[in-house]
Design brief:
300 residues, UDP-N-acetylmuramoyl-L-alanine:D-glutamate ligase, 11 helices, 13% strand
Length: 300
């Protein structure tokens, strides 16, 4: 394992530069989010919201058709694609074929929030791994469904980014969360190199490990962020930035900005009662302030 280093804004300078005046929504990528089930629709909606606040040009959320009628008012900027669902409100394996069609003209995909862990959903995740040529972020249940079957990752069609918390990482490798916590750097780095994927091992001092053996440690973030939805926010952020920028920079930027946004909210509100939505609303301000470091003179 190479020596780990701390993430710094200098690691993602291109993301902080002002947008060219001739930009349009296609310039900043189209993210496809795949998630949700009848009683867990909030998770993918948080991811979609975070992706928009992170600068995605377009966001499409693919969700089970039985969830479609439950979409709350708001998030009018998100496009929705209902796919075949089971009687219980999760994705049906019949969703795999239309999902492959949805990959066209997208720039990145993120899957996992609110998915559930049925056999039908597993079929959907395997389809994505094997047929998605785009950067593919796998989080939450999309990771849990790979437990004991990580060799599937070696059949991937494009770059894969896993964003496990310690419990999910432990399931992937047959360890407990406590064992993962004792050896975070080595475990993340070893898995990333062995399976040729990026690993974002969340938690206190989130670790980012690359397929080439590089390892980064994030110093932003605080205990107040240990609450529902924070991981879904990070998933949307990584997906949005991966749709528009070099992949390693996108991952490092998302992790750093996610934590810094949480730090700013905690400073304002205190360390208890932080909401994932609070962090989402702070993302543009953090990005703006970090961008002043690299701001270039505008052309009249």
């Amino acid at each position: 394992m190479k020596t780990a280093r701390f993430i710094s804004p200098s690691d993602f300078r291109s993301i902080l530069k002002p947008r060219p005046k001739e930009s349009h929504k296609g310039t900043w990528g189209h993210l496809l989010l795949v998630g949700g089930s009848i009683n867990r629709l909030g998770a993918p909606l948080l991811s979609a919201w975070a992706a928009l606040r992170s600068g995605a040009g377009l966001v499409t959320l693919a969700l089970p058709d039985r969830c479609y009628r439950k979409i709350p008012r708001g998030l009018l900027e998100v496009m929705y694609e209902p796919l075949p669902s089971t009687a219980r409100g999760g994705f049906s394996r019949r969703a795999s074929a239309p999902l492959k069609v949805l990959l066209k003209e997208k720039r990145a995909v993120a899957a996992g929030p609110g998915l559930g862990t049925t056999a039908d959903v597993r079929s959907l995740v395997v389809t994505l791994v094997q047929h998605c040529p785009l950067p593919l972020v796998l989080d939450a249940d999309a990771i849990n469904l790979l437990a004991g079957e990580t060799e599937i990752l070696k059949k991937r069609s494009g770059p894969v980014i896993l964003t496990p918390h310690p419990g999910e990482m432990g399931r992937l490798i047959g360890r407990t969360a406590a064992q993962v916590q004792k050896d975070r750097l080595r475990i993340a780095s070893s898995f990333a190199k062995t399976h040729h994927v990026f690993v974002v091992l969340k938690g206190f001092h989130t670790v980012v490990a690359t397929p080439k053996g590089s390892c980064f440690i994030n110093l932003t973030g605080n205990p107040g962020m240990a609450t529902a939805g924070m991981g879904d926010v990070l998933t949307g952020m990584i997906g949005a930035l991966a749709a528009a920028y070099p992949l390693e920079e996108a991952i490092l930027a998302a992790v750093y900005i996610h934590g810094l946004a949480g730090d700013r909210v905690a400073k304002r509100l205190g360390g208890r009662g932080l909401l994932a939505s609070d962090v989402i609303e702070e993302i543009p301000r953090v990005s703006k302030d970090l961008g002043t470091t690299f701001k270039q003179p505008s052309i009249a």
